[in-house]
Amino acid sequence: MNQDSKEQAALERSPLSLRLEAIWDIDSAAEAIEFKGKRYTWGQLRSLALEVNSLLDAAGIGQGAPIGILFRNRPAIAATVMGLLVTGRSIVSINPFYSDETLTEEIRTLNLAALIGDESDWRRNGVIAAAADSGALGLALHPGSNDVTAIAETTSKANRNYRQMPPGIALEILTSGTTGKPKRLQAKYSALADAILSSVRDDGPEGKPKLRSGNTIVPAPLVHVSGVFSVLLSFCEGRSIVLLEKFDVAEWADAVFRHKIRFASVPPTAMRMILHANVPKEKLASLIAVRSGTAPLSAETQKQFEQTYGVPVLIQYSATEWLGGIAGWTIEEHRQYMPAKLGSVGRAQPGTKLRVINPDTGEEVPRGENGILEVLPQKRMGPEAAWNRTTDLASMDEDDFLYIVGRADDVIIRGGFKVSMPSVAEVVNKHPAVKDASVLGMPDARLGEVPVCAVELRPGATAPSEAELEAFCREHLLPYQVPVKFRVVDALPRTVSMKVDRPATRALFA
Description:
The termini are far apart. Helix 3 packs across helix 4 and helix 12 (268-276) packs across helix 13. By secondary structure, the chain is an alpha/beta fold. The protein contains 18 helices and 25 strands.
């Protein structure tokens, strides 16, 4: 390829791909990730990513082929994501926290060209067989090394009958499951680049990327948009990350203290855990502000955290559908408007429009009145973007501050995870002894809300124990979807129209 051809190819690549490639070429010896006390350099990340791409190329798997990744919070996974985006490939996010049964079913139905995961996931029951049966090439990542190996059982069965992704798709990511099973949304390279690169500032001389000295802590699961976006934003900024396998108060606080973290993302559940653990104020003295999202944050928790640690809490309102934040607070707004606007999730992000409408008429409601929130994320989604109706009940004040006052659908948020009540009830109803189940949310001091379940039995059925019902649910649901309490009753309370009486059912758990 001559120089003109190379330059033309570079122009056709996404700015996100070019940015990530430029970052890992700056200083191969510099630290990129800290994980469980071990440090990984940019050179190590690049080496592993190039090895993954080499194996895919050798198998004839190119751009547009769906590459599944079991998204665990591991350095090798982060490196693989970076490498696939550098080469313009299409990533399909897969939740490794599913049960073996659900995971293997997912693998078989996704019609992947390749499946990449930590070696521990390849040892799970049925995973190798599912990949082989579906014709996906299996690649195993090995913790603590740059080794990538092909799963022998899949190499001979790999085929080219996988689905072809639409042009320009960077990431097919899972939503958090508002209406039951998580939906799959496809994000284009153009939208992903706009969402991430618009937040990158202060490059070096002549606008060239540079590595930065500050660190970012990433405790959010990479399988969710907040986690993978945190990693990609930090990488594009040239910033090293402290990757946590999951949120742990002691590990998180120690990282803040050691690295003198200035800004940190702290979802509501984690914030309550920090307060309950009585983390010493001096451990968090470096913080200038914390950002909080993924779930509603009560005004009481926000106020307690700010008073305890002297750190402003900047609430962010986001959604997977719009690739991250669509409203939020800045430090300047916090200084100007707090505490008068306590309880607000902030103002619309640049390029995003918000309105609150009457769901029956579609007309905007007066400021201060409640209605359904609609979002127009035009900057991020392009000129084809249209008003999107959410399931959130909201209001906006005269200063354009948004308040989320509830949900229009039957969903609770448990520790940052959305749980659909009807979907859980549908699973419980499959138990052979259950005639009908009612699932609802109850307040919880640490997690916000948790699901509970009342059960009416089939005539003549032997009543299952609470432990048996819990075990049944764990076979078919994710851990955070499993009700924390069960009550077996002769008959569910009902209204005169024969619908389940929710207040009366709630009283069973009082």
